[in-house]
Records
---
Amino acid sequence: MKNKSSFALMYAAFFIYSLASVFSKLASRNDFLSLPYLLCLFVIVVILGIYAILWQQVLKNIPLSIAMANKPIALVLSLVWAFFLFKEHLSIKIMAGIVLVLIGVAVIGLGAKK
């Protein structure tokens, strides 16, 4: 059970980490050093602080090689945010890349179970 909760914590950390990309995009839409820009930067720092704490907890229970192999999930989540929140276009190449990343994570996950 501890292993399942460790993986759940790891994926929650990746979810939180991916939110930093959302606020980075929001910051880029505002004037440099404006109040909305600074608020977005503050939220990014808070998100990265929370992520750092969660990541340390993940590494207590999951080998670094397995945790790092799963980290591309955060990139996939960032693309999901870009598509749904910012209506950005995802090309066939990007979607193929997402599929390859997910296959790679699955292969590594299956190898870790052995």
---
Amino acid sequence: MVGLEVVTALLAKYGLVLVAPIAVLEGPIVTVIAAWLATRGFFPIWALALVVIAADLIGDLLFYALGRWGRGVLPPRWLDRFGLGAARLDALAAHFEVKGGRTLLFGKFTHSVGFAVLVAAGAGRMKLGQFLFFNLLGTVPKSLFFVALGYGFGAAYARIDHWISRASLVMLAVIVAFAASWFLYRKARR
């Protein structure tokens, strides 16, 4: 990604027209920077909130689509090699049928595993309406949190970017450690 100073200059020059596509790719820090620019009068804060919520949903829909229709592009033997055989995909579909909303919200709020959860929701054939409902339920508070963070402390966007990265890495490490422990526990019980 280009430097944060370049992103800031581009957002200041082109406004909300550029916020949307960049926020699809790199939502949190772009939201923080754009909210800081909104405090300086570059665009209305309410319009920014709507744009970043829409951009986040569009990005999430793209990951969902990758999971839903991307698996049809790969040959079955490749799917098996990635551990996505018919039995695993059926189990994934059953999981998202029962616990899809909870799983999506977990992915949204941890930020670290969001990509994997969104792709898995698509691969598990989660109903699109249900996906959109729970995704919106998680997107609104998350996006508004980053808007508020940028509005209040956006001048420190470089430091905030560092904090977001660190928090994501710590969360990922905790999730991996928990998953490994759970896997080893399950294996030991057999």
---
Amino acid sequence: GPQWVPTVDDSKVRDGVSVPVYPKGVGVLLVRAGGELFAIANKCAHMACPLEGGKVEGGVITCPCHDWRFDVRSGQFLDAPELKIDTYATKVEDGKVLVQLKGA
């Protein structure tokens, strides 16, 4: 079933910054937007470009490769909502960000 995997210190994820983490080898991008913490797949729906380094503004991350824009809350591609990237639940315990992996 689902499992919570600890990643980085909560303090490392600042507003408007994306932080790549690899819980159990899965590429996940932590993003804080408007004080809330989100976790999305660290790859764009287009050519699997890594999203790390993408600009984060108001809950939207822009892929650095081709400027595809995704909502960090839902993972939806803003220009075609039927396309989306995976999102992951997060929580903070003892100052660490935990990411929920869906598990086998």
---
Amino acid sequence: MGRPTLSESLDALLPRCRRGEEEAFVEVYSLIGSSLYGTAVRLLGRPEEAEEVVQETIILLNEKAAAIRSGNLRAWLHRVTVNQCLDRLK
């Protein structure tokens, strides 16, 4: 069996996020933070604001982890990032 995909790695962290394990959020950030940041920079055009959006996304993960379906964390994180950017652009 090969290495787990990014989605599989993130989904493996979801139960730990649901328990509020701080290290799990750090691991999520290390796995996907740069991708979320890239999305935010492309949408906002402002690196400082993009970093704030990524931080807010991880905070929302902490608050909403129980409601996220397994197999969906990667998509959820990207959707929240895009929505946060769109809110800022209004």
